[in-house]
Amino acid sequence: MSTTSVSETLEGTPIERVSRLEDVIRQGGDEAQQLRHLPRDVVDALIDAGLFRFTIPRELGGEDASIRETIEVVAAIAAIDASVGWNVMIGSEINAMAAGGMPIDLAKEVYLDNPRVIMCGGGGPGTTPARAVKEDGGYRVWAQSSFISGCHNAEWCFQSAALYDGDDPILSSQGQPVVRTFFIHKSQFEILDTWDVAGIRGSGSHDVKVDGVLVGEKWEPVQLMLPSLYANPVFRVPIPARLAYNKAAVAIGVARGAVDAFVELASTKTPFLTGSLLKDRPVAQYRLGEAEATLRAARALLMEAMDGLVDSLSNGEAEPSLEATTSARLACTFAANASMHVTDVMHNTAGTSAGYMANPLERRLRDAHACASHRWVAHPLYEEMGRILMGERPSMAFF
User: Fold this and answer.
1) pTM recorded for the entire structure
2) Most buried of 227, 268, 332, 398 (most Cβ within 10 A)?
């Protein structure tokens, strides 16, 4: 299949295609609240619009999106519905992370032979230790991973496991277990129904389990974020920073949706025991102004910091500077937590109306808190960045 038939048949920019799908995204987000993952017809509509592949290289049928473009697209979807935005964020993120360094012969098979491909993976530890044993033909893998967002949509899943020699873990020169990721087809993994939560409820972030499956030698070179084969600096952004700006994009989208929902409500609601619309009350005007300023500031800082990260990689550097990385991580953390604050204020200012399940502010409140609690943008990261700003060396987890 040629790249022309994959990428050049799409009409308009990714943002324009999101706008055309607004009703589909909203309705799909509503249904996902019950399913706890996206309905298949919505996934298909998003695939048809190229929204799971716009981040991958043009050579593989994508649109080679910049970091700024990626944030804009993910935020636009999340402003309509956060769970749909989260699914697109994860699927497009991992599609691109895998594509950046995948051997070209495998990449053509994975992306061009199947232009509807979506990937999932990463996640957290499951209930049992994961292990992999080398044998003829590949690796035998046992693993259960939690928080595998979008697993129902995915053709492939990345799962991590410690390498074993028989019953004994293989240790590095520092005495630590050697861990690697494995590229596992959906025919080999099982989705466990574990995702019953409030925020980002429709993300489908269930556990995924493999029980002694054989991952063939053919797929051993497929990893996340190997040295980049492409010029786009996004493929050289360290994994934690990449995971952070994508999560921040969903968060600012949620806050944008909350502000817009509040304005709509305030134009029609007359609070109890008052004779004027909510939009005419000084407290509502004040809080809206402050929230809008906070959201714009968070978005501007995020974009400025990510532009700085790109500039740090613009001359072909293998990795960005510590200063640029710290600024990017700080901006991502601030964006997620400021967005949560904005959403909290809009929900509170709306009064009891926002407590009803049918009110869009209710879901956005839950979603904003879920975004801000994510490991790569959560408030404890301020401590790590404060240490760096004090001149201390960053921990290995920072990178």
Assistant:
1) 0.95
2) 332
